[in-house]
Write a structure and sequence with these properties.
single chain; alpha/beta; 13 helices; globular; binds uridine-5'-diphosphate
Length: 226
């Protein structure tokens, strides 16, 4: 996390657009089938391991990553940094009112956080240019895009040259969690690598997405260093 945050700070200092992708198992499996998503991930400036499955897969490949860096954790960590350093953050995505509620929760938790703006994540294609202009007018240093994978990554890449935010991060359902609409797994479950189980219990409709998990671990196992 500290490494990711210090890279993100260097992106802000450098200026120009940068894309951060938080890779979870289902996103990586999706990229196996979706070549556009795969190319987007390859071009990303920073890819973080998001989930116990990804940490396990990297271990199978002979790498040791110190910890998981999820979208939700990044929003929290960077909101704290915003309060300390003045970085402006923009929350784009989720259902009407959720980004506002997430912003309010962040203001309460990290007094002094600079919220540059918010926007819900439901729009038609012809509204996109207006959305990009509104984001640019707000001059964010960090743009969180919460439209789910792969929509958020495709939005970021499609408007990469137009968006004037030095750091853009797809953060999935993070605003739902931060606003309190969805509960985060308790600490002991996160530490035990069981956040996925908590999410299935809370949203059983997500079960099909988790079906990719065994396939992901199998793919990583086959590709391991012997
Ligand atoms: N969402 C959105 N616009 C859309 C589709 C989804 O803003 O057109 C939001 C949705 O309300 C939710 C988030 O995107 O807050 C998707 O969350 P999920 O946990 O499914 O993300 P993933 O795990 O795919 O990254």
């Amino acid at each position: 996390m500290e490494e990711a945050v210090s890279l993100i700070e260097s992106f802000i200092a450098e200026g120009g657009p940068h894309h951060v992708f938080t890779a979870d198992a289902s996103g990586i499996m999706r990229a196996h089938e979706d070549s556009e998503l795969r190319d987007i991930i390859r071009q990303a400036d920073l890819v973080t391991p998001d989930g116990a499955g990804v940490i396990l897969a990297t271990e199978l490949q002979g790498m040791r990553l110190p910890e998981r860096v999820s979208g939700c954790d990044l929003v929290e960590r960077l909101a704290r940094l915003s309060a300390e350093r003045g970085y402006r953050i923009y929350l784009f995505g989720a259902a009407e009112g959720v980004a506002d509620a997430a912003a309010a929760a962040l203001v309460e938790k990290y007094p002094g956080v600079h919220i540059a703006g918010t926007r819900n994540g439901f729009f038609s294609e012809d509204e996109e240019v207006k959305i990009v202009q509104a984001i640019n007018r707000a001059k964010p240093d960090i743009l969180f895009v919460a439209l789910g994978i792969p929509k958020q990554e495709k939005f970021i890449r499609k408007h990469f040259e137009l968006l004037r935010a030095p750091v853009m991060i797809g953060v999935g359902g993070s605003f739902d969690v931060i606003s309190g609409q969805l509960k985060r797994a308790p600490q002991w479950m996160r530490q035990a690598g069981l956040e996925w189980l908590f999410r299935i219990l809370q949203q059983p409709e997500r079960l099909p997405r988790f079906a990719a998990l065994p396939q992901f671990v199998w793919t990583a196992w086959r590709g391991r260093k012997k």
